[in-house]
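Why Caspase recruitment domain-containing protein 19? Reviewers of the renewal asked for a concrete example.
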Amino acid sequence: QSYCHRLQHDMYFLTSTSRLNEQVVDKIVLQLNRVYPQILTNEEAEKFRNPKASLHTRLSDLLKHLQKKGDRHCQEFYRALQINAEQLFNDLPSRKILKTPDPTEIDTDKEQYMLNDRGPVFFLACFSVAAGLALFWYCCNSETQVIGRARRILGFSPIIIGRHVRNICMLYLEDVSRN
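Here is what the prediction returned.
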């Protein structure tokens, strides 16, 4: 979105009563007149700083003048507004539209958080359950004689699973082998 369109969108907000006071408008006009690149000539700056005209009229004329001059001039106005009235600059309607994300767009940071919010303990618990079920299914399959192999694997695994769990599994395998 171009700065001219943004300024047109923000015009009512900026010209409404008590948004900008006289000193801030004068600072903005002076900055646009004095800072490189010079946006306003000396005559234009005097016209927009004329205290005989109402603030609303001067500000409306300034914004219309900048829109006629082009995008670069409008961009410099936003820069001057940010420097001289940062809170007002942050409250502009066009800034709120720019800050609002597209509802159809996926926020990758949020999506990454959503996928990883359970942590490593949850992953280990799920993996342990899946490995236990796979081992149980493999050992209980009547087509294969794996009890001897499973007993050897469980016998050498005090590091992987606790001793109490290993002893329970060994007792279960002995009961299964007797039947």
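The CA atoms of residues 125 and 131 lie 10 Å apart. This is the kind of structural detail the renewal will allow us to pursue systematically.
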